[in-house]
Amino acid sequence: MYAWIWRHLPGTWRTKAATAAGLIVAVAAVFWFVVFPWVEPKVQFDDGVVDTPTPTRTP
Amino acid sequence: MRTLIRGMGELTITAGLILMLFVTYQLWGTGRYTQNQQDRLSEEMLSDWKSPKFTTERVKLGEGLAMIRIPRFGEDWRYVIVEGVEREDLRKGPGHYPGTALPGEVGNFVVSGHRTTYSAPFNRLGELRRGDEILIDTREEQYVYTVTDRKIVKPSATEVTAPVPGHPKRRPTERLITLTTCHPKYSAAQRMIIFGELESAVPRVERA
Q: What transmembrane ranges does the database entry give (chain A) (predicted)?
């Protein structure tokens, strides 16, 4: 998969390396700012609240 | 055949890297959001306290209610407590269970906070000992609560948020505080509950 991408990048190996690095950063940014915030509510490993609190008012 | 195996290998390694990135996001990235929210809330709340305008209006969900400081965690440890304990609220910092008592009131002032994500405000709750102070600053007063007990309970133990913790039907007579967070540290399997009682209150004065 990666070898295929590498072969199809334009330019010398320096250009390829720079483009590859840029692509990695771009993909990582998409994950960090879009995918992860979307997934995060579905991965409840740090909730802290005692179930769904019903307000317990003084009678 | 070889390309297939290589492809699968690359895919799984990529998946692993993405997962590690996600863990970094959870434990570090979320904290940045919370710090930004805390800075904003702190500024809003403190400037609101300075203004001469006085209101008995309830604090809206998501807004800053009080400042919590715990000396055991250091001189600089402080968080704005927001009103509400929904996901959106707890992302900004520790949240006050709506409907439970306000600071200093008779009843149970219940606050929940994240243990490991979103700046992990209640990360070190397990270090609190009996007698440790929990300081709650509001516009007029600084309330000094002291820790009385610690319990590990199931997430369904909503009775700890009652005006008399553990006894939902009883009428309250004491001024109490209850802090809730996840337990063990990287799990939501249980909750750690810290109980405390009001020891003293001192009027707050703006520094000249």
A: 20-39
pLDDT tens per residue across span B82-141: 999 998 899 999 999 999 999 999 999 999 999 998 999 999 999 999 999 999 999 889
In a domain, A22, yes or no: yes
Domain that holds residue B87: 2-203
A21 in a domain, yes or no? Answer: yes
User: Is residue A44 situated within a structural domain?
Assistant: no
CB of A13 within 8 Å of a chain B CB? The answer is: no
Residue B184, preceding bond cis, omega within 30 degrees?
A: yes
Residue B58, in any domain of the structure:
yes
Q: Do B11 and A1 touch (CB under 8 A)?
A: yes
CATH number, residue B111: 2.40.260.10
Q: Tally the domains of chain B.
A: 1
Q: Does B166 touch chain A (CB under 8 A)?
A: no
Examine the pLDDT at A53 and tell me if it is beyond 50.
Answer: no
- Please tell me which of the candidates A2, A44, A54 has its beta carbon nearest to residue B188: A44
ipTM over 0.90: no
Structure tokens at A15: 């250009």
Selected residue with higher pLDDT from B166 and A40: B166
Q: What's the pLDDT at B56?
A: 65
**Chain A residues with CB-CB distance to B124 below 8 A:** none
For B172, the closest of A36, A49, A58 (CB atoms) is: A58
Strand ranges in B40-189 using DSSP code E only, listed in sequence order:
64-69, 78-83, 95-96, 107-112, 133-137, 141-153, 175-183
A7 touches chain B (CB under 8 A): no
Q: Report the distance separating Cα B121 and Cα B111, nearest Å.
A: 11
Q: String of b and e for B107-116 (b: at least 16 CB within 10 Å)?
A: bbbbbbbbbb
Judge: A46–B118 Cβ closer than 8 Å, yes or no: yes
* Contact state of A51 with B156 under an 8 Å Cβ cutoff: yes
